[in-house]
Specification:
Elements (H helix, E strand, L loop, with lengths): L1 E4 L12 H11 L3 E5 H14 L3 E6 L6 H9 L3 E4 L2 H8 L7 H11 E3 L6 H8 L4 E4 L2 H10 L4 E5 L7 E3 L12 H10 L4 E5 L4 E3 L3 H19 L7 E3 L15 H15 L5 E4 L3 H4 L3 E13 L2 E6 L9 H4 L7 E2 L5 E7 L8 E9 L6 E4 L20 E5 L2
Parallel strand pairs: 1-19, 2-19, 3-4, 3-12, 4-5, 5-6, 6-7, 7-9, 9-11, 11-12, 14-16
Antiparallel strand pairs: 2-13, 8-10, 13-14, 13-18, 15-18, 16-17
Helix pairs in contact: 9-10
Length: 393
């Protein structure tokens, strides 16, 4: 169920007030997943401000909420999809455009970034003629047979050192075989438009980008020496860190490095794409939960809330991320455990949260929980995902 609310939040650094969150909980019940669309727009604007040459393609998998996609579409974003359902979520916003406008949008503003695609997916995608990625010879044969009208980017395997979520063990062609893979695709009659890479999600080691950009520049150079002159795009993937805490380096520090290296290595005729997901949505969402149980175990106070790791806090398992649980009240604190509502011991949010004494019915919240959280919520044990609330839609 989706509820629409409105208030005057406009600043990027503005945190949804406790009063607003409490009022929403009183009106709609809990658990809640609150999305601030002004924050989404501000995050996109900030990305564009610091990286003016880079075209941001929102990684839909980070949070596929249709209203989020609509807001970013209206704000001028492009989109990175990795499944046919994600593609169709974006396509819903352009279905009423003229045929030419729709096709131009698909080609210019959507990239299908999953290097491995089922035959049925390729067959369904072929009519839309999108840009897709690949990283191996078998994928070339599949694309030739099932989706001959698409364009392709070759995804490279690059260092993921220091990333919160590592991806290079699963995807990416070795640099030494890259130009041979480009040649194989061209011989199959499929134009390779450029290269892509991903340095890993929530990257803290900015040198990953430097190494990847240098590698990509060398492959561009070798490809052109071997006669492949149609490549004019570079997708630098995701990894842009969300400001979860004060230890995370700000975007402008990474942007300074990227802008310098891109200008040094790539001429202006090479379009630069990126796939920010976490950066755009993490700070735009807040969860609100209710204390439904209380016990003293193993020498510490334990609280049970009506949201957990099978739901909004799923990112703690799948995304290796921690979302501090905050109280709405002040007072002396002690080290506490916080558990989710299901009948599974895995449903443990934290064993070490500093909290004041809470009572049944009290509310707690977690900020910066917009990425890889509600997207991977389940209905395990019969507990439904949190209700979605939209602010500033």
């Amino acid at each position: 169920m989706i509820f629409l609310c409105h208030n005057g939040l406009t600043e990027r650094t503005f945190v949804i007030s406790k009063t607003i969150l409490q009022n929403l909980a009183k009106e709609h019940g809990t658990p809640l997943f609150v999305i601030d669309h002004d924050q989404l727009r501000a995050n996109l604007a900030e990305f564009n401000r610091w990286l003016p040459r880079v075209q941001p393609y929102f990684a839909v998998k980070a949070n596929p909420n249709p209203e989020i996609i609509r807001t970013l579409y209206q704000a001028g974003a492009s989109f990175d999809v990795a499944s046919l359902p994600e593609f169709l979520l974006v396509h819903e916003n352009i279905k009423d455009l003229s045929a030419k406008e729709r096709q131009d949008f698909i080609w210019d503003k959507i990239i299908y970034s999953h290097p491995i695609k089922a035959n049925e997916t390729l067959q369904a995608l072929d009519q839309y003629k999108p840009l897709v990625t690949y990283d191996n010879y078998e994928e070339i044969l599949k694309v030739k047979k099932h989706a001959p009208n698409v364009g392709m980017l070759l995804r490279l395997r690059v260092p993921n050192t220091g990333a919160m979520v590592e991806l290079s063990s699963k995807f990416g062609a070795e640099p030494g075989e890259a130009v041979d893979l480009i040649e194989a695709a061209e011989k199959a009659g499929i134009t390779v438009e450029g290269l892509s890479f991903h340095v890993g999600s929530q990257t803290t080691n900015f040198q990953n980008f430097v190494q990847a950009l240098t590698m990509a520049a060398e492959i561009f150079k070798e490809a052109r020496l071997r006669g492949f002159h149609k490549m004019n795009q570079l997708d630098i993937g995701g990894g842009f860190p969300a400001p979860y805490d004060a230890n995370v380096k700000p975007l402008h520090e990474l942007a300074k490095i990227l802008n310098t290296e891109i200008a040094r290595l790539f001429p202006e005729d090479v379009a630069i794409l990126a796939e920010p997901g976490r950066y755009l949505v993490a700070t735009a969402c807040t969860s609100v939960s209710e204390v439904i149980g209380k016990a003293h175990r193993d020498g510490r106070q334990c609280y049970y809330i009506n949201d957990g790791v099978y739901h909004t806090y799923s990112g703690q398992l799948f995304d290796h991320c921690h979302y501090p649980v905050r109280p709405f009240k002040d007072g002396p604190t002690e080290l506490c455990a916080v558990f989710g509502p299901t009948c599974d011991a895995l449903d443990t949010i934290t064993l070490a949260e500093e909290l004041p004494e809470l009572f049944l019915g009290d509310l707690v919240y977690s900020e910066n929980i917009g990425a890889y959280s509600h997207a991977s919520s389940t209905s395990f044990n019969g507990f439904p995902p949190a209700k979605v609330i939209h602010l500033n839609l």
